[in-house]
Amino acid sequence: MSESPVESTDSADQERPGIIHAVPVRHPGRYVAIAVIAVLALMFLHMVLTNPAFNWPFVFEAMNQSVVIEGFIKGTLMCTVLAMLFGVIGGVILAVMRLSTNPVLRAVSWAYTWFFRAIPRLVLLTIMGVLGILFPLASGGLSFGVPFDWVIIDWLGLSGDWRFYSVDANTLFSGFIGAIVGLAASEAAYMAEIARAGINSVDKGQMEAAQAVGMSRSLAMRRIVLPQAMRVIVPPTGNETIAMLKDTSLLIALPLSTEMFFQLSQIGARTFQLFPVFVAATLYYLIATSILMIGQTYLERHFGRGFGTTVQPKAAAGLQIGAAK
Prior knowledge:
The protein is mainly α. It has a domain at about 80-260: MetI-like (MetI-like fold, Orthogonal Bundle). The chain has 14 helices and two strands. Helix 3 (about 55-65) crosses helix 13 (about 275-305), helix 4 (about 65-100) runs antiparallel to helix 11 and helix 5 (about 105-120) packs across helix 9. The protein starts with a helix and ends with a helix. Mean pLDDT is about 80; it is low at about 315-325.
């Protein structure tokens, strides 16, 4: 005799487990950690607000000095922008050379990267400040003209000065140009590795497909490979930009008088208020790096479109509405 549907349903309901009353897992350690962090944060805030060593009126007075503001804009920010601009361009060129089939280009790129990654930026900038010793003013300074004129002119039996343009190398390398050259030369070595990693992250079939439709290798690199590589290149480049902003404080080794940290250090030396001026410099760097981090977030979101599995809230809502219909 067959079992009725009603009886089978009742037996199935009896076999199912009852409602599970889940008890949340307690984490007492979290509350202890939160309490400890809160106490430490309040202690730090109390010290910052009440310790007379901070001298907040003098901090804000130093920050509002015209020479400091001008040094932040024309020294810190401008050096950061120009050094990163030339560093990124040089890094991309070095990365393309490193990936070239030409062994000479690969060797030159590797040697450049090896050399400038091995030298600390403080040492490199200090060398830039004294690089004029290679081109003494008594010998005409840094000159542009007929190369090796002391050999060629004597061999031809000619006389006269065959230098077209001369400049004082000490003034050139110890100033703003020396700062940009030193920072950009160092940054190009790091950007070369970042760009090379980004280019290698793009499937080789992209280049082959572009060349199959008639694109040259250089055109395919600019139009196909590099735009896709930006997803990998942008995050570390943003970090390098923030690091470059902070490394402009090393320009005190030249010294570059138009830089913000140099001006604040001079104010502290004249007034014997060294700690407050260092706090002022810290606030400037905090504000600038916070703005750069926000810009980096938007750039990563822009170049990361189409990658990953994250669904935007609006898109997810649209999917739910479509499924309901």
